Amino acid sequence: MLRRWQSECVGKALDHFKGGQRHFFCQATPAAGKTRMSAELSKRMLETGMIDLVVCFAPSREVAQGFRATLESVVGGKFDGLLGACGTALTYQAMDYLSEDFWSLFYNYRVLAIFDEIHHCAAQEPGVSNLWGQLIVKRIQESAAYTVGLSGTPWRSDEMGIALARYSTPEGRLICDFRYSLANAVVEKVCRSPRIMLVDNGDVQLTVSNSGDCQVRTFESISSLLKDPVVSYQDLLVNEPALRHMLQLANNKLSELRGDIANAAGLVVASTIDHAYLVAEILNALGETAMVVASDSLDARNRIQRFREGNQRWIVAVGMVAEGTDIPRLQVCCHVSRIRTELHFRQVLGRILRRIGGIDKYAWMYIFAESSLSEFAKRVAEDLPHDLAVLPAVEPASVISVGAPIEISGSDSLVEEEAAYPLVSGEPESNETEFYFHRTARELAFSEHFRHQLLAIF
Gene3D superfamilies of this UniProt entry (predicted)? Predict the structure, then answer.
């Protein structure tokens, strides 16, 4: 049975297409059920003869496989791309390797093209786009019978326009044909209500040694600490006492939740593979075992599937648990990634929002009280700030063309936004193999005076 918003969206899309429009844009909060809605729309368009085939593009192989399974279940036909199939589901990465025979399908048949998390495809003006945006404009925009763009976070960190999206003139605001907010999803019990815990400390000491000179500086908050040019956010992320305190808080909350939901689980989004194993060691010291899933794991998807179906408490991920990854039992999250963009923040939060029952009404996210993350957390209460959906006016001389998306360690997980914006606030770039402190030169000491600010959203 479709949710109310899904039925409304399908009806609006059909009216949109029957009215002569070809491109439909749906913004629905992460975990609301965009895949199920798209499958139902595909089914009705196939049944009524509006289209011949459905082709879906998704940000990772795992998400594409999940999309394919949903399409096959709802439509009742095969989506393996072979003879007699109703269509196929592919990754954006695959687009650059498809043959001319494949692209000819868009000219010879009436194809519905679905783009999951289309904000990863940039197309601002001729010659200014990333690889996937270029391919969509070149190969699909004019040849597909219909397109559906889906996004839970419809803006880009580089503020470039989204492929196939429309923007108002002159304001440049994103035009959504259908919008379903997090506030609506919480009220209708589709998504959990976020509870974001900001972890801070009121007495931090930084010891800096230089040529035999030793200086001790004291800070009353993490935010003030990070204003010191000697310290980077990455230094905070590998500080074991600080990490241990956050993980202990999150683990206590998970134990509390498992009193009602026996298989509730927690996710830690780490920065690097070494960092993930450091997190796992700390969890082990707290009496927990954690599954580590990283981009260099040969069986990463199998491990995620085992975790999804199992009862293990914690999974620590580096880039592999991406947007669209469906592990509904995740209910607690620690964000200790070095990536600090609002897009990434909301995608991580989206991993714990999917509701599965009547008593799992809250999702708990733990972050350090760094200034930008604190601001992102407070803006979640606004759901989708309108100014973030704005395509700003850009002088031609300042336009930068973004190249092909970057993949890390051979993974096909989508990390374009993360790789393009690894650091903020002018922090020096750090090699992953040199991620840890040079403790002989400087040292961080956190007192026991940790404090916590709880942001109850909706």
Answer: P-loop containing nucleotide triphosphate hydrolases
- Mean predicted lDDT score pLDDT of the chain: 82
- Kindly state whether residue 186 falls inside one of the protein's structural domains: no
Asked if residue 318 lies in contact with residue 348, where contact means CB atoms within 8 angstroms, the answer is: no
User: How many domains, the chain?
Assistant: 2
Q: Assess contact for 57 and 113: CB atoms under 8 A.
A: yes
DSSP H/E element including 224:
helix 222-225
Identify the CATH number of the domain in which residue 239 sits: 3.40.50.300
Residue 391 belongs to some domain of the structure: no
Assess if residue 110 is contained within a domain. yes
Closest C-alpha to 156, from 181, 204, 124? 124
Q: Are residues 365 and 246 in the same domain?
A: yes
In this predicted model, what pLDDT tens digit does every residue of 26-71 receive, in sequence order? 999 988 999 999 999 999 999 999 999 999 999 888 889 999 999 9
Mark which of 116, 150, 180 sits at the end of a domain. 180
Phi, psi for 383 (deg, rounded to 5): 70, -80
Question: Encoding tokens for residue 160?
Answer: 């470039």
Give the rounded percent of residues in the chain with a pLDDT score beyond 70. Answer: 79
- The domain boundary residue, chosen from 152, 180, 208: 180
Coil, helix or strand for 137?
A: helix
Give pLDDT, residue 172.
Answer: 66
80 and 110 fall within a common domain: yes
For residue 333, the model assigns a pLDDT of 97
Q: Is the pTM of this model over 0.85?
A: no
> In 68-202, which ranges are E strands?
87-91, 111-115, 123-125, 128-129, 146-151, 166-167, 174-175, 178-180, 193-201
What is the mean pLDDT of the segment spanning 110-126? Answer: 79
The yes-or-no verdict on residue 427 having pLDDT over 50 is: no
281 shares its domain with 244: yes
pLDDT for residue 429:
36
- Does residue 18 sit in helix, strand or coil? helix
Q: Binning pLDDT at 50, 70 and 90, where does residue 106 land?
A: very high
E strands present in 295-355 = 314-318, 330-335
164 and 199 housed in the same domain = no
Residues 6+ positions from 201 with CB-CB distance below 8 Å: 221, 222, 242, 446, 447, 449, 450, 451
Tell me the CB-side half-sphere exposure of residue 73, using CA atoms within 13 A: 11
Domain that holds residue 347: 193-383+403-456
Q: Is 167 helix (H, G, I), strand (E, B) or coil?
A: strand
Same domain assignment for residues 155 and 234: no
**Same domain, residue pair 24 and 49:** yes
Q: Based on the domain organization, do 145 and 272 belong to the same domain?
A: no
- 323 or 440, higher pLDDT: 323
**403 has a pLDDT exceeding 80:** no
Structure tokens at 396: 């031609």
